[in-house]
Design brief:
By secondary structure, the chain is an alpha/beta fold. It has 21 helices and twelve strands. Specifically methylates the cytosine at position 967 (m5C967) of 16S rRNA.
Length: 527
């Protein structure tokens, strides 16, 4: 088993940046599947508790108060909604935690159980198939999710006693199902407990097929393992997989119109938070370890900082917008990159922040209001049709943070491993091509087109840009346009695509470079 057991290290309530919820990256077009839930029954299965319905007479006793869900029950409900309904793990979990009333420790356990179980699903299923002779076909979704979650606790969490994990699973099975289910859970999990030393030590070194060995060791689908090995080699591919299984850290982008990274760092440390300047983006970023819900801090409310992944911060910085520029952000929601560009422009000039979904205009507008930025105008429309609404060649800078497969944000949305396919990459690449063609028409001669994704797929990144340049000879990559302060930390950290020998104006950040999201960023100039 790679990585060894660990205690719950994920931060409950941490709000992801652009690369997470509702972003212009993975999952832009999807919905979270809702946050309503049934209490007292199996997720989507059992009905309301007896006697809880209408029709009570005046003399009837009041219904008993519903018991709050435990951390494990909350995690189980979230896992079922993700696997059965296609809900996004981050949206589903955050919504459930906000109304749960769980302590911070229990919220941390629930968070670890959801993300860890999703991340290790393939390996967990490999082991469970050895213990369940009849296979998974007849198991209800909640039962399979409960087995996966319980085995994850046994193998990967060193602070959860084995008896506690087994007993809680059996009790949940009894409450939500029947005696037969609880008996089966007890038998399977106790069998796993007897083999825990072997399971914890397993590295699958005996597997002769390299792709299958790494797939089982790190719990990634074989098609993705093979793709990464072909693109990057075994050593780098395995580092990418290991990093993708680590909990994401929280990072803040400092609003330099109101404070400096150094001043913000001091304020956070004085508040008792374990904070440091970002390695990837020290010019604007601060990393906070185990900071909890940073959207609840005074500095967030006062517009001193925003929550954004370090890699995502580099996008607007690479665009290098200047005061007075006219800027178009084609796929803007929830507004983090538009806000960052407005900060860099010192609030001077104009930013049109467009998104496909009208209801997301409010997200962009609320970001701008919180940060005190008056030069952002939120609009709604299809990014492929923006050339029909704005004058051609009328923007100094056009940012296309394109919808993508999201393979760079697996640590934040681990279900991507199991929901994406090679066909999805091909389909989204076709959409990106159309968006690039449309966006490029709006760039002034001498202006900048900045293209970014939060993926690691070459078809969506380097190949996409190469194909675009072949069709558009009036554009070229623009390495000289990147600010030196943006490139210097990347080169110091040994990011190969940023090195002076390799840098051509496009950058591929991998998850292991800084423990941040995998991002591709290409700066192009219209000649």
């Amino acid at each position: 088993m790679s990585g060894g057991p660990r205690s719950g290290r994920r931060e409950p309530g941490a709000t992801p940046g652009k690369a997470g919820v509702g972003s212009g990256s993975a999952g832009r077009q999807g919905a979270a599947g809702g946050t309503a839930r049934r209490r007292g029954g199996a997720p989507g299965g059992k009905g309301a508790a007896p006697g809880a319905g209408p029709g009570r007479g005046p003399g009837a006793s009041a219904p008993r108060a519903r018991q709050p869900r435990s951390a494990r029950e909350l995690a189980l409900d979230a896992l079922v909604r993700v696997s059965r309904d296609g809900a996004y793990s981050n949206l589903q979990l955050n919504a459930a935690l906000q109304e749960s009333g769980l302590s911070r420790a229990d919220a941390g356990l629930a968070t670890e159980l959801v993300y860890g179980t999703l991340q290790r699903r393939l390996t967990l299923d490999h082991w469970l198939q050895q213990f369940i002779t009849k296979g998974f076909a007849k198991l209800e979704p909640w039962v399979l999710s409960l087995l996966r979650m319980s085995l994850y606790q046994l193998v990967y969490l060193d602070r959860v006693p084995a008896h506690a994990a087994v007993n809680e699973a059996v009790n949940i099975g009894r409450r939500r199902g029947h005696a037969g289910i609880s008996s089966m859970l007890n038998g399977v999990l106790r069998n796993a407990v007897r083999q825990l030393p072997q399971l914890k030590a397993e590295t699958f070194a005996g597997e002769t097929n390299e792709v299958r060995r790494l797939s089982l060791r790190h719990s990634y689908p074989e098609w993705l393992v093979g793709r990464w090995i072909s693109a990057y080699g075994v050593e780098t591919a395995e580092a990418m997989m290991e990093s993708g299984n680590e909990p994401p850290h929280s990072s803040l982008r400092i609003n330099r119109l109101r404070t400096s990274p150094e001043q913000a760092l001091l304020q956070l440390q004085q508040a008792g938070l374990n904070a440091r300047l970002s390695d990837a983006a020290p010019w604007a970023g601060v990393v906070v370890a185990r900071g909890g819900n940073l959207a609840g801090t005074d500095g967030y409310t006062e517009g001193l900082w925003s929550i954004q992944d370090e890699s995502s911060m580099i996008v607007a910085a690479a665009a290098d917008p200047r005061p007075g520029f006219r800027v178009l952000d084609c796929c803007a929601a929830p507004g983090g990159k538009s806000a960052h560009m407005a900060e860099l422009m010192e609030g001077k000039g104009e930013i049109i922040a467009n998104d496909l979904h009208p209801h997301k205009q409010a997200l962009v507008e609320s970001q701008a209001a919180r940060l005190g930025l008056s030069n952002i105008q939120a609009v709604s429309g299809d990014a492929a049709e923006l050339a029909e609404h704005f004058a051609l060649a009328s923007f100094d800078l056009v940012l296309l943070d394109a919808p993508c497969s999201g393979l760079g944000v697996i640590r934040r949305k681990p279900e991507i491993k199991w929901t994406k396919t090679p066909d999805d990459i091909e389909a989204i690449a076709a959409i990106q091509e159309r968006l690039l063609d449309s966006a490029s028409c709006l760039v002034k001669p001498g202006g900048t087109l900045l293209y970014s994704t939060c993926t690691i797929a070459e078809e969506e990144n380097g190949k996409q840009i190469a194909d675009f340049l072949a069709k558009h000879p009036d554009f070229s990559l623009d390495p000289e346009g990147w600010p030196a302060e943006v490139l210097e930390p990347l080169r110091s950290a040994g990011v190969e695509s940023a090195s002076a020998d390799h840098f051509d104006g496009a950058l591929q950040l991998l998850p292991q470079h800084f423990g941040s999201d995998g991002f591709y960023i290409a700066r192009l100039k219209r000649i």
